[in-house]
Amino acid sequence: MKVLVISDPSDIAFEPVSLELITAARTVCGDDGEVTVAALGHPTEAKEQFGAADKVVGLLSETEGLPTAEAAQVALASLVAEDRPDVVLVAYSALGLDIGPWLAARCDMDMLAYVTGLERAGADILVRSQIYGGKLDATSRIGAGCVLSITPGSFEAAPSQPVVGDLKRGTDAEAAYSTRLTGVDRPELTGVDLTQANRILCVGRGIGDETGIEQARGLASALSAELAGSRPVVDGGLLEKLRQVGKSGQKVKPGLYLALGVSGAPEHLEGMASAESIVAINSDPDAPIFNVAHYVATCDMFDFMDALEELLEENPVAAAGDAA
């Protein structure tokens, strides 16, 4: 089985999920299969990182920074027509959402999104995905000729290693495209920077109100952690936007991520699934965040906070710079 992995670039490099997609590809391609990475831009970084694939094709290598979705779509459609992969993997990300559905429609391929697990089943693939905003897990059987959108954090990252030999060159020309990216303006952070935090305590909708937030804030301080929230918490005005984790917030990779009352919708998982150690507390035993957490407990989040506060009073934790 031939699998095409579409890398997920930022304006300066590749997102970590790009290496996770290579692992996902190996899961389904089999011993006699082939994994090809379509590296969108950043040719130097692609040559240094994607050696775990069998082949790397450099697309839009003359593009500076982040390629536009339109440029990526045209280049990838040409590659798919030429290479004829059985499966195409994209990240569930902003660029992946632009590329995946368009490519499936253009190339007459089936598509499944919110994918969290893959298993080869003869000539088919068993695909585990989240539906209804992460409330349910579904298992679908799909044949060759499909595009799968992978939720970040669902697979271990493949080793980052140099490519042997040169990158194969694909389509580069952008002159005919109607849209061009002229620059990326990043807002100046004047408050907390969650991307630099070693420990994060994130609360979900279940935190309730300001009283719950204040208890969580005190616990975060005792843990030498930064307080963060899921989108419902921020939309409800309980925390400022800079403290939001997820697709429309910050993407973080702390040493410790303590999630209290966070259900784990795909949009949230995209922002935190790469954390080194994830501890999830939720009263719902089927909470999707349990699928990516390293340690879980099914209990009331406030009971957990009370118990942890008592423990910390007896055994204060080390400074935030120490290991979690």
UniProtKB/TrEMBL annotation:
Domain of life (superkingdom): Bacteria
Keyword Lyase: no
Pfam families in alphabetical order: ETF, ETF_alpha
GO biological process assignments: fatty acid beta-oxidation using acyl-CoA dehydrogenase
GO molecular function, one term: electron transfer activity
This protein's record includes keyword Ribonucleoprotein: no
SMART domains recorded: ETF
Cofactor: FAD
Record note on cofactor: Binds 1 FAD per dimer.
Residues holding FAD: 205, 230-231, 244-248, 261-268, 282
Keywords: Electron transport, FAD, Flavoprotein, Transport
Family note: Belongs to the ETF alpha-subunit/FixB family.
Protein name: Electron transfer flavoprotein large subunit
Lineage of source species: Bacteria, Pseudomonadati, Pseudomonadota, Alphaproteobacteria, Rhodobacterales
